[in-house]
Amino acid sequence: MLLLNPALFFIVVSLFLGTLESRLTLDYYAKTCPKFSQIIQDTITNKQIASPTTAGATIRLFLHDCLPNGCDASVLVSSTSFNKAERDNEINLSLPGDGFDTIVRAKTALELACPNTVSCADILAVATRDLVTMAGGPYYPVYLGRRDGRVSRSSDVDGNLPKPTMPMSQIIEIFEKRGFSVEEMVALSGAHTIGFSHCNQISNDLYNYSKSSNYDPQYNPRFAQGLQKACTDYEKNPTLSVFNDIMTPNKFDNVYFQNLPKGLGVLKSDRGLFGDPRTKPFVETFAADETKFFKAFASAMQKLSLVGIKTGRKGEIRRRCDQIN
Ligand code: HEM
């Protein structure tokens, strides 16, 4: 009798569809956009070959999308006269254009092949995974069906992204708030095996550090002197930057962790990972065993890609990644 009531029937069906909609799957676009994976793969390959800074740029962009309020491509939205968007928050101003450009290119190709079907959030998650793998890092499955956020507010970013000057407790807390253990946080930080840091991120560590030392004594002295030289003109030239992993800067490997005990960590937070008793054991494990690092990184990235995802009516398929529909 109950099921014959049309109103109730509608509610039951909607609830059922709601749960179906909110489930992510690996083959989400198999029917609606069969070329999804290929198009992203082609886009990132061309882009990374033309601009090798793309991998680092995109991985960082993904982190900065996911941590504040979920992997919903809200970091890609441009500000308007009524709204200061996430990407204009101070901490995001250093996000390189290559990351944004990669997603725009993939979105353009995907809109031609399958209009109004693929979310910018899914594109960013898969492009990141493909670039990690292309740089030599591990492959991990990315579940699909995220929808794009309808809100992007600069104020949501404050306090939700790590800064190199933060004490380790605060960095741990930021990741803990999103469900990550200390081990997962250390593994994710292994992304600093590729990419750059701008000199202004380390200038306080390099010049006039304290009365007794010109630079942070946690640095290897020769490394500090090299950085001082490389960054000499940072005030005149704010684009000056240095490799995050001085030994193998473009290869996704565990050398970043091997650098840390030698004082070759660029950012204060990198050096802090070896200096703090909570994080040091994981640095040592990952430095000694690349397979363990890759396993931990892959599973933490998969977890990161599911943080705060929007499904069903909580999101939309944006027509342009930089504008809410
Ligand atoms: C643990 C706390 C972390 C802090 C304090 C931190 C901070 C930073 C800073 C300041 C930069 C340099 C940005 C610039 O000057 O352009 C940077 C670069 C980078 N970060 Fe992190 N980060 C952290 C963790 C992570 C995690 C978990 C990931 C990814 C899973 C990540 C991925 C990257 C990448 C790939 C770059 C290079 C960007 C490029 O080459 O353009 N970072 N990070």
UniProtKB/TrEMBL annotation:
Q: Which PROSITE patterns match?
A: PEROXIDASE_1 (PS00435), PEROXIDASE_4 (PS50873)
Q: Which GO terms describe its biological process?
A: hydrogen peroxide catabolic process; response to oxidative stress
UniProt: substrate binding residues: P162
Q: Which Pfam families match?
A: peroxidase
Please state the Enzyme Commission number of this protein: 1.11.1.7
Site positions (Transition state stabilizer) are R60
Q: Residues in the active site? A: H64 (proton acceptor)
Where primarily located? Answer: secreted
Q: Which cofactor does it need?
A: heme b; Ca(2+)
- Compartments where found: Secreted
The record describes the protein's role as: Removal of H(2)O(2), oxidation of toxic reductants, biosynthesis and degradation of lignin, suberization, auxin catabolism, response to environmental stresses such as wounding, pathogen attack and oxidative stress. These functions might be dependent on each isozyme/isoform in each plant tissue.
What protein am I looking at?
Peroxidase
Species name = Arachis duranensis
Give the taxonomic lineage as stored in the record.
Eukaryota, Viridiplantae, Streptophyta, Embryophyta, Tracheophyta
The gene name on file is LOC107495082
